[in-house]
Every structure is written in C-alpha cells, then in structure tokens.
C-alpha cells in the first residue's frame, strides 16, 4: 500500500480489526476510532457557565452603536485545560456579555469559580484560571502534522450531559484567517465554542471559535452548524499567551476611516482615473488617520509594503492587527505618493466623524457596515 494512503482512519480500522480478531465494517471501525478520540480528550474538557452581563453591541463609528444581530442566550459552553495548574482556554465569545460570575464544572463533577485573565478579541480566544489542584492538560498536535482531508472531531461539554457531545467532520482547509485557523466541516455551535477540534488520537488540532470577516463580539456565530467552522492553531495562541497571562484584552486595531469607491461624487476626479488601492471617503478627526493628516480622497496603495488591490484585500491585511500595533501606509494624494506610520487604535477611542452625507443607518435586522476593515 502506498504510504500516503495510510490515513489515520485506515490505521484505526486496522487496529480495531486486529483487536477483535476479525475484520470490522468501516462504520464500526470509524465509530470506535471516534470513541477512543473522545475518551482521550474527555479528561481535559470542562463546562463553563456565566451569570450576569448584557447583550453585546457593535460600535459602528459614525453610524452609532447597534445591538448585535445574533442574540446571545445564556447557557453552558466549553473549555480546554491548558495546564495542570488550572489554566483553561476557551473562546472570548463565551464572555461577550461581560458576566459578573464565571463557574467551571470539571470532568469529575467538581464545580469551582473561575477568574477571567485575558481575552484576544481578534482570534476570539480567552484564558481563565481555576484553583482546584491538579488537572489534566490536553495534548496538542503539531501544525506540521495536520493535513487537509483528515478526520476531525469537534467536542464540547455545553449540553449538560456527563459525556462530551461530538460532531465528526474533516479538516477542510489550512492556514485560514491570515494563517491562524483551521477550517472544518464538523458541525460547530455556541455550545462547543471554546472546545477542541481533535484528531483520532485525541490530540487538539485547534480551539473552536466563531469567526467572520467583520463585526462585533458575536460575528461568525450566525454560521453555526453551516459546515464552515474554524479552530485556532496552538502556535497562534502561544503568540499572545504572555499578554493573556498579564491580564490584557487584545482588541482589533482601527485606522479611523470609511472607504468609498471610484464612483463616489466626493472623490476628486483625478483620483478616480488612478486605479489600484482603496479610496478614503470619511476620516474621523480623533483617530490615527486624522492625527496623521490623511484626507478624504486619499488612496491607500499599500500596507507595510504590500500592495492593496481592493477593500476586501485591505480587510484581510488588517484583520489580525491589534490596537497599539504600528503599520506603514503608502498612499497617493492627487499625483503624489507618500508614506506614513500609524499606531492603530481601539474603536472606542475613535470619534468626531463628519456629519455631512453620512451613510444611511441599517434597517432593523441588517448588519451595520464595518467602519474600517477588520476581517478576512
């Protein structure tokens, strides 16, 4: 047999057949393999419950503040034990209400209060801590061992049953969302956000989170059970671990502009002739863009030396940049090309948008447009 054809599933079938002393049906072998994977990860899964807080909102800059279109209901969710001393990884989605109380139910049924240490609102991950003695940390797969097409099991403890609930799928794609996430077709939902996506050995491939191209704290949750889901790689989590341990909240970085297209009447005619990049339609006075002197009609050509093709391209390049990060913008004003550096800011720190010719507010049930590129 060709070595490349010996998949984890095939190996599981061979092992299962040997154990029973006779060939097994593929369905039986697959079910046994999934049960073994769940058994391996189960001691590292916890149930997370929260009390208090309010429905989160979206700060849409010049159009004001809107309630999230996805309604966050109260209910248990999932976490993964990261270290034996009580560090637990989960999704920031589970704390979007800013709850006053967080409790964790361990695999042995013990219930304990937990402290929220830090959150990364870009990767949608969070770190909490419980003081209950020794826990069993989950084993993680190396990124280099993960391949498209391998079986992936989404696990959670958000349904209140003593056994984890599972959903079987495959790894659909690698290095999504600027290289930080795995894509899977396993069914994902709010009850397993913060839980693990595991291989057939019970090793964690990634932490399950909701993701979307733009929006607020709940963006991406409306895709649940759609066959498009994401899980964050361990090395991407490690990249921000020191900041989470230090109690920081990592927020998306904003320039403080709204973007127009080349048919916009307010954009100078000479600039409409020039193609490439994206054109600024609005600039907030109190913002990185306003402080740096960017103007309506300026065309952003590149970020950190990488050319920008269109608005979606700009969104992708800025989607994982945090408030406090410094970016270099190359822009064109009339016929002159220049560069400047901006320190990205939180949306809450940006204000004083022009009131003339503001875009129409969204209708009830519609998502407000992003005021600055922030997604994939």
Describe the structure.
The protein has two domains: 26-250, Beta Barrel (Thrombin, subunit H), CATH 2.40.10; 257-349, PDZ domain (Pdz3 Domain, Roll). Helix content is 16%, strand content 30%. It is built from eight helices and 22 strands. It has an eight-stranded mixed sheet. It has a six-stranded antiparallel beta barrel with strand order 10-11-12-15-14-13. The longest helix has 16 residues, at 26-41. The protein is globular.
Helix/strand/pairing category? alpha+beta
Ends distance: 40 Å
Beta-strand fraction estimate? 25-35%
Order of helical and strand elements: HHEEEEEEEEEEEHEEEEHHEEHEHEEHEE
Helical residue percent? 10-25%
Look up the CATH topology of the largest domain: Thrombin, subunit H
**Poorly predicted sequence stretches spanning 5 or more consecutive residues:** 1-22, 263-267, 359-376
The CATH architecture classification of the largest domain is: Beta Barrel
Radius of gyration: 23 Å
Annotation, overall tally of beta strands: 22
The average pLDDT is 81
> How many domain units?
2
Summarize the structure.
This protein is of the alpha+beta class. The protein has 2 domains: 225 residues, Thrombin, subunit H, CATH 2.40.10; 93 residues, Pdz3 Domain (Roll).
Strand and helix map with partners:
Blueprint: H1 8-20, H2 26-41, E1 45-51, E2 57-59, E3 65-67, E4 77-81, E5 87-91, E6 101-105, E7 111-113, E8 115-120, E9 125-129, E10 151-156, E11 165-175, H3 176-179, E12 181-184, E13 196-198, E14 204-209, E15 229-232, H4 234-238, H5 241-245, E16 249-250, E17 257-260, H6 269-273, E18 278-283, H7 288-292, E19 299-303, E20 306-307, H8 311-318, E21 326-333, E22 336-343
Parallel strand pairs: 8-16
Antiparallel strand pairs: 1-4, 1-6, 2-3, 4-5, 5-9, 6-7, 8-9, 10-11, 10-13, 11-12, 12-15, 13-14, 14-15, 17-18, 18-19, 19-20, 19-21, 21-22
């Amino acid at each position: 047999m060709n070595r490349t054809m010996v998949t984890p599933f095939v190996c599981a079938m061979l092992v299962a057949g040997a154990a029973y002393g006779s060939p097994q049906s593929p369905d039986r072998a697959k079910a046994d393999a999934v049960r073994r994977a769940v058994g391996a990860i189960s001691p590292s899964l916890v149930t997370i419950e929260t009390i208090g807080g309010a429905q989160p909102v979206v700060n849409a800059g010049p159009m004001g503040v809107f309630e999230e279109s996805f309604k966050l209901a109260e209910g248990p969710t999932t976490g993964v034990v990261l270290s034996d001393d009580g560090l637990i990884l989960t999704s920031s989605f589970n704390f979007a209400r800013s709850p006053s109380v967080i409790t964790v139910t361990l695999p042995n049924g013990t219930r304990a209060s937990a402290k929220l240490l830090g959150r990364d609102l870009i990767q949608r991950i969070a770190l909490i801590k419980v003081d209950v003695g020794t826990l069993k940390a989950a084993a993680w797969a190396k990124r280099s061992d993960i391949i498209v097409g391998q079986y992936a099991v989404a696990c959670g403890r958000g349904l209140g049953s003593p056994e984890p609930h599972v959903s079987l799928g495959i790894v659909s794609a690698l290095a999504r969302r600027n290289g930080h996430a795995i894509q899977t077709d396993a069914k994902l939902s709010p009850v397993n956000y913060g839980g693990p996506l595991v291989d057939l050995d019970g090793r964690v491939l990634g932490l399950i989170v909701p993701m979307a191209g733009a929006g607020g704290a709940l963006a991406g949750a409306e895709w649940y059970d759609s066959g498009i889901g994401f899980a964050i790689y361990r090395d991407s989590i490690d990249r921000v671990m020191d900041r989470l341990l230090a109690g920081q909240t990592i927020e998306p970085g904003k320039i403080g502009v709204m973007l127009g297209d080349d048919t916009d009447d307010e954009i100078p005619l000479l600039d409409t002739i020039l193609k490439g990049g994206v054109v600024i339609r609005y600039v907030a006075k109190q913002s990185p863009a306003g402080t740096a002197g960017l103007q309506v009609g300026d065309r952003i050509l590149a970020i950190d030396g990488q050319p920008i093709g269109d608005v979606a391209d700009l969104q992708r390049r800025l989607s994982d940049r945090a408030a406090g990060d410094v970016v270099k913008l190359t822009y064109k004003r009339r016929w002159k090309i220049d560069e400047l550096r901006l320190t990205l800011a939180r949306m809450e720190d940006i204000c004083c948008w022009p009131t003339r010719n503001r875009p129409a507010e969204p209708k009830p049930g519609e998502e407000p447009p992003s005021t600055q590129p922030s997604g994939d």
